[in-house]
Design goal:
This protein has 118 residues and is α+β, with helices and mostly antiparallel strands. It has 2 domains: 67 residues, no CATH class; 39 residues, no CATH class. The protein is 31% helix and 20% strand. It has 2 helices and 6 strands. Strands 1-2-3-4 form a 4-stranded mixed sheet. A two-stranded antiparallel ribbon has the order 5-6. The longest helix is centred in the middle third of the chain and has 24 residues. The protein is rod-shaped, with a radius of gyration of 33 Å. It starts with 7 loop residues before the first strand and ends in a 6-residue tail after the last helix. The mean pLDDT is 84.
Length: 118
């Protein structure tokens, strides 16, 4: 590879007069000579298609985030979940699977409470 300090720009549909040009082909494609042939290194249509794909993906992610919830709280609101939101996910004799952490702790506290007789 020759490291020229200066390059020329050639615009048109005919091949440039030297291999030391950046070729703007059909006002859409930038080509460079790689030693064997002119190769595309920027293709506006390709870049635009990729950008449109990225925009579509971001849009679908935004829609997903706007409609998604965790324990009935919208994710987009960045909720802080506490013991009233989280389920125990396991059941036992006193605690049921659909109990919240807060309710389960209340049941345990009630079971452990002692009465003092005076």
């Amino acid at each position: 590879m020759i490291n020229n300090k200066q390059v020329n720009i050639w615009r048109g549909d005919q091949e440039p007069p030297t291999i030391y040009h950046v070729w703007i082909y059909n006002d859409l494609v930038l080509k460079l000579y790689d030693g064997n042939e002119w190769v595309v290194f920027v293709d506006d249509a390709l870049v635009m298609n990729k950008l449109n794909e990225v925009i579509d993906r971001v849009t679908s992610l935004e829609e997903f985030m706007n409609n998604s919830t965790i324990n009935n709280h919208k994710i987009k609101d960045n909720p802080i979940l506490d013991g009233t939101d989280l389920k125990t996910a396991s059941s036992g004799f006193y605690i049921q699977q659909d109990d919240t952490i807060s309710n389960a702790l209340r049941k345990i506290d009630k079971l452990l409470q002692t009465e003092i007789i005076q």
